[in-house]
Every structure is written in C-alpha cells, then in structure tokens.
Write a structure and sequence with these properties.
By secondary structure, the chain is mainly alpha-helical. The protein is 46% helix and 0% strand. The radius of gyration is 27 Å and the shape is elongated. 0% of the residues are buried.
Length: 79
C-alpha cells in the first residue's frame, strides 16, 4: 500500500489574489507525492485498537484508586 499526496497545495485552494488558479501570471510549481511502503499486520491493528483503550483505563483508574484510599471525613475537614 502506498500513500500518495492527494491534497492540492495551499496556493491552488486560494483565490486569484493569493496566487490561486485565476492568477494571470502563473509560476510552475512542482507537484510532490510521497510514496511510503506500509504493511500493517493483524498485530498492528490489535495494538492500534487495544493500547489507547488500556492507556485510558489506567489513566482513569489510578486517580480513582488514590481517591478511594482517602477517608471522606479527612477530605472534607478543611471545607
């Protein structure tokens, strides 16, 4: 699989005042395409799906477990 730059350059999306397609004097611009060899395996798909979920669960549980260990009366003492 290859990734090809399918998006036009910024100047082609702007109007004639900014050098877009309607400009009278047009300079030649080189079109660029990037070809990257990509081969995704089932392990890659599993990592992409599972790792963010695991990180979010850990990020939510660590503060919750710390808060469970504090007595409510101790927390509300200085309110």
């Amino acid at each position: 699989m290859a990734i090809v730059s399918a998006f036009p350059g910024p100047s082609s999306m702007m109007g004639p005042a900014f050098g877009g397609p309607g400009r009278a004097v047009r300079t030649t611009t080189a079109t660029s395409s990037i070809m990257l060899p990509i081969a995704l395996t089932p392990l890659d798909y599993a990592a992409i799906f599972i790792l963010p979920i695991a990180i979010n669960i850990i990020a939510a549980l660590v503060p919750a477990i710390r808060a469970m260990r504090i007595l409510p009366a101790q927390t509300l003492r200085y309110e």
